[in-house]
């Protein structure tokens, strides 16, 4: 069940800025009209009457104005995307944001009143499995955690203990060091996958033998409650319920996280796997 947030609304903020495809739009500028819905939890502010427990909409309005005047983009889509990301990074209390940028009397040589772009962006929660069985495995895992935490649009919230586990699939290889982490991110699934692949590559990962030895292995286990089935990316991870080296560290940091298809919690899946292995 998706959490429902409260809303703080800013409607029709007028900003004179320089965005557009044509050179004269970038030099002469024009008026833009911005509306924003900030999805947050206002409970504490409502109970305490304390502004610091909420989001100062005057400061947000000033931020929007300064951001759109300081930057120049050809497309409204780019302006909305960059503005939404900047607001989410600036205010921790904003969980999700809806931004609409209107461009009155856009230069299309037709009698229209306004054009606009409206987007909704927000934070997502991903669980990432980590593994290594070549070289200094702890160093590779530590460096991967650090690299993920240094992404400008992501933050590592919690990391499990590292566990020594036997190899899976191809058993004639060294034991693995495995762990899991919880990641708060603005990245979409394929964007996150690209970052994981980049971090693996920088760690010297070579994809020679399927399930073979590796310096670093990073897998998306969960991404919110998303169900995605593509040839190159499946979420939840298709093999997770069969892998103790995933379920054990994941159970340490998210024992009651439920699989969006089976409905079983991580701890329930681990109990079932242990029972199967006893048979």
Q: Care to describe what's here?
A:
The chain is α+β, with helices and mostly antiparallel strands and 279 residues long. The chain folds into 2 domains: 6-122, GTP Cyclohydrolase I, domain 2, CATH 3.30.1130.10; 124-278, 2-Layer Sandwich (Alpha-Beta Plaits). It has helices at residues 23-28, 43-48, 57-70, 76-90, 137-149, 189-202, 244-253, 266-278; strands at 6-17, 30-40, 96-104, 114-122, 124-132, 154-159, 163-165, 176-185, 217-223, 228-229, 234-235. The strands form 3 sheets. Strands 5, 6, 7, 8 and 9 form a 5-stranded antiparallel sheet that branches. Strands 1-2-3-4 form a 4-stranded antiparallel sheet. A hairpin with a 4-residue loop joins β10 (228-229) and β11. The mean pLDDT is 92.
Biggest pleated-sheet summary: 5 strands, antiparallel
Structural domain tally = 2
Q: What is the overall silhouette? A: elongated
Q: pLDDT average, as an integer? A: 92
Radius of gyration: 23 Å
Instruction: Name the CATH architecture of the largest domain.
Output: 2-Layer Sandwich
Q: Give, in order, the helices and strands.
A: EHEHHHEEEHEEEHEEEHH
CATH superfamily assignment of the largest domain?
Answer: 7,8-Dihydro-6-hydroxymethylpterin-pyrophosphokinase HPPK
Q: For the terminal residues, how far apart are their CA atoms?
A: 35 Å
Number of DSSP strands?
11
| Continuous helix count | 8
Q: Which ranges are low-confidence, i.e. pLDDT below 50, for 5 or more consecutive residues? A: none
* Beta-strand proportion: 25-35%
CATH topology of the largest domain: Alpha-Beta Plaits
CATH class of the largest domain: Alpha Beta
Given helix and strand content, the structural type is alpha+beta
Helix content: 25-40%
GO biological process, one term: folic acid biosynthetic process
Keywords: ATP-binding, Folate biosynthesis, Kinase, Lyase, Nucleotide-binding, Transferase
Pfam family, one: HPPK
Organism: [Ruminococcus] torques
């Amino acid at each position: 069940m998706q959490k429902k947030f409260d809303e703080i609304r800013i409607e029709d903020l007028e900003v004179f800025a320089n965005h557009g495809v044509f050179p004269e739009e970038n030099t002469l500028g024009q008026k833009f009209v911005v509306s924003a819905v900030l999805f947050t939890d206002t409970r504490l502010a409502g109970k305490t009457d304390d502004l610091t427990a909420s989001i100062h909409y005057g400061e947000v309005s000033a931020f929007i104005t300064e951001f759109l005047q300081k930057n120049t983009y050809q497309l409204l889509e780019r302006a909305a995307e960059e503005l939404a990301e900047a607001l989410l990074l600036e205010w921790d209390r904003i969980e999700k944001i809806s931004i609409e940028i209107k461009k009155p009397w856009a230069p299309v040589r037709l009698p229209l009143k306004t054009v606009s772009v409206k987007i909704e962006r927000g934070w997502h929660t991903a669980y990432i499995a980590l593994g290594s069985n070549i070289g200094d495995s702890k160093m590779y895992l530590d460096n991967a955690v650090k690299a993920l935490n240094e992404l400008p649009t992501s933050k590592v919230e919690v990391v499990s203990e590292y566990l020594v586990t036997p190899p899976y699939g191809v058993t004639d290889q060294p034991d693995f060091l495995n762990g899991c982490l919880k990641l708060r991110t603005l990245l979409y699934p394929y964007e996150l996958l690209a970052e994981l692949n980049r971090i693996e590559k920088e760690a010297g990962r070579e994809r020679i033998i399927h399930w073979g030895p590796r310096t670093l292995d990073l897998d998306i286990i969960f991404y919110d409650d998303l169900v995605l089935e593509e040839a190159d990316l499946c979420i939840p991870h298709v093999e997770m319920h069969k892998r103790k080296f995933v379920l054990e560290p994941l159970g340490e940091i998210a024992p009651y996280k439920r699989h969006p298809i089976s409905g079983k919690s991580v701890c329930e899946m681990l109990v079932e796997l242990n029972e199967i292995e006893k048979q």
